Amino acid sequence: MTHPGTIVVTGGSRGIGAATVRLAAAAGYDVCFTYHEQGDAAHALVQEIRALGREATCIQADVADDDAADRVFAHAASLPRAITGLVNNAGVTGPIGPFHAADTKTLRRVLEVNVMGTMSFSRHAVRMWLEQGRPGHIVNVSSIAAASGAPGEYVHYAASKAAVEGFTVGLAREVAAQGIRVNAVAPGTTLTDIHAAAGEPDRPKRIAARVPMGRIARAEEIAEAVMWLLSERAGYVTGSVLKVAGGL
Ligand code: NAP
Fold it and tell me: Rounded to an integer, what distance in angstroms lies between the CA atom of residue 53 and that of residue 47?
């Protein structure tokens, strides 16, 4: 099998991002991933991947920073294989609560991380692939909140993910003729630290009751969909949003 290249994953230190890093390495990719605050977890994951015989590196970055994409892609270019994939996974919700209670700082932060982060990393990747004259593939991690609106929990987060999905469709159609595929995965509630960060660690238990399959997702189940969309097995799939949500 030809080597699938290097993949860049934002927010790879924990949760869905870390599961994606592990599956990517198992599929033969080299991996460069970012972390924000959890440097120890990120460096431990790098060692775990290297022990599998794959190249791996991590870099601290806030995807909302203007220079983050430049820094991260420059770092990824230090790996020996060409960059062939980008997973825009880093995301934040802000505190759970009704929209009227959300402060301006939270609204701005959620939009900057989820939307501006995804757009600036995607722009960098597309420019790079167009300049190199080679195709690459992008997967954006959205949420079923984009469709549900997440009333009473985080409407602003839902709006940010709806923006990610609109961006996914438009960019996919714009660069399809150049062989660049752009897709999104919309996970349902998944067992990660994001719920504790939002102020309700037991949210997964509460949500499980209303999921047709009767349980929430494991991070690996979301990562499987991400890796399929990145792979050549999804060679005719672009501009799609793949819901992975247990029937919701
Ligand atoms: P998580 O467990 O909270 O992990 C978030 C990851 O993103 C961590 O690696 C974190 O880095 C990183 N990160 C956070 N803010 C960042 C920033 N400003 N710049 C760069 N990296 C940043 O989250 P998760 O549940 O795996 O969520 C991953 C994605 O899935 C998000 O886009 C989320 O919206 C989406 N999603 C999650 C669920 C769910 O139920 N979990 C459902 C639908 C969609 P550190 O570890 O260094 O802090």
Answer: 10
d(CA 159, CA 237): 24
Our answer on whether the CB atom of 20 is closer than 6 Å to any ligand 1 atom is no
Is residue 219 classed exposed, middle or buried when 0-12, 13-18 and 19+ CB atoms within 10 A define those classes? Answer: buried
Question: What does each C-alpha distance from 136 to 151, 172, 243 come to in angstroms?
Answer: 36, 12, 22
Mind telling me the catalytic residues?
A: 157
Average pLDDT of 183-198?
95
Return the H-helix or E-strand segment holding 110. Answer: helix 104-111
**Ligand 1: centre distance to CA 11 (Å):** 6
Six-digit token string for 50: 């290297």
Q: Which of 21, 34, 36 to mutate to test the pocket of ligand 1 (most atoms within 8 A of CB)?
A: 36
Predicted confidence (pLDDT) per residue in 14-72, tens digit: 999 999 999 999 999 999 999 999 999 999 999 999 998 999 999 999 999 999 999 99
Task: Pick the closest to residue 207 from 142, 141, 148 (CA basis).
Answer: 148
Strand 83-88 relative to strand 181-187: parallel, antiparallel, unpaired?
Answer: unpaired
pTM of the model: 0.98
CATH fold label, 6-244: Rossmann fold (3.40.50)
Q: Where are the domains of the chain?
A: 6-244
**Per-residue pLDDT tens for 133-174?**
999 999 999 999 999 999 999 999 999 999 999 999 999 999
Token pair in block for residue 48:
């775990």
The alpha carbon of 192 and the centre of ligand 1 are apart by a number of angstroms equal to: 8
